[in-house]
Amino acid sequence: MSTEPPERPPETHPLDFARRHPAEMRARAEAFLELMATRRSVRHFSSEPLPEGVLEACLRVAVSAPSGANKQPWSFVVVHDPELKRRIREAAEAEERAFYGGRAPERWLRDLASLGTDADKPFLEEAPALIVMFAQRSGAAPDERHYYVSESCGIAAGFLLAALHDAGLASLTHTPSPMGFLGELLQRPSSEQAYLLIPVGLPAPDCRVPSIARKPLDEVVTWL
Predict the structure, then answer these.
(1) Residue 84: which CATH number?
(2) How far is CA 137 from CA 140, 152, 154, 195, in A?
(3) pTM (2 d.p.)
């Protein structure tokens, strides 16, 4: 007969959930669609400082995202310091020059041509803040495992981008490859890997973005 004590059931509390009238549900969904349809990746930022507390609130939204086994395998570093932003730009541009100068396949470069991107990344200094998201491959304890790390971080990043746009801020998802320099410059532990570099701010007054189109819903959704 086993002498081990029985497992305790997980602690729970009542769900905080507001049921809405169908008409309100549709109105809210369409309003959010209208809002998010205006979100674009921005590469030209104003130097205006960010209102106090806005980034913190948006990051609170990000860390509310679901994650594998609730391990929350992410960390965020917010960079305001001009010198540190300069060093990040220099390191990122070094990787980008290698990318555009021969590392990237020709097909990839053709696909990027319509977006007007190149190895120069002035937005890394112009944006008033850089948010660097790190994925934690494992926890602080030696035997703590994390699960579905990439998927969990992707969900949290989506939450963050939506929150930033809803708050009235512009952003860009920047992924210079490889991004190991970010862990070094920001002195992160070896268990963390740079996942996303997000410049954040208000767009420059003369900001322009590429004219692009989204795929229609019937190309990407199947109803069964």
Answers:
(1) 3.40.109.10
(2) 10, 11, 14, 11
(3) 0.93
First-to-last C-alpha distance (Å) of the chain: 50
pLDDT per residue over 186-222, tens digit each?
999 999 999 999 999 999 999 999 999 999 999 999 9
| Span 45-73, average pLDDT | 97
Query: What was the pLDDT predicted at 7?
Result: 78
Number of domains forming the structure of the chain: 1
β-pair type (170-171, 74-79): unpaired
pLDDT > 60? residue 93: yes
Domain assignment present for 93: yes
9 within domain boundaries: no
pLDDT in tens, 111-138: 999 898 999 999 999 999 999 999 999 9
List, in order, residues 6 or more apart from 67 with CB less than 8 Å away: 73, 74, 148, 152, 155, 156
Q: What are the b/e assignments for 54-91, b being 16+ CB within 10 Å? A: bbeebbebbeebebbeebbbbbbbebeeeeebebbbeb
For 6, 9, 23, 38, the CA distances from 3, given in Å and listed in that order, are 9, 18, 56, 61
* 152-196 pLDDT tens trace: 999 999 999 999 999 999 999 999 989 999 999 999 999 999 999
Full domain range(s) for residue 94? 50-203
| Residue 42 domain flag | no
**CA 208 and chain centroid, separation:** 22
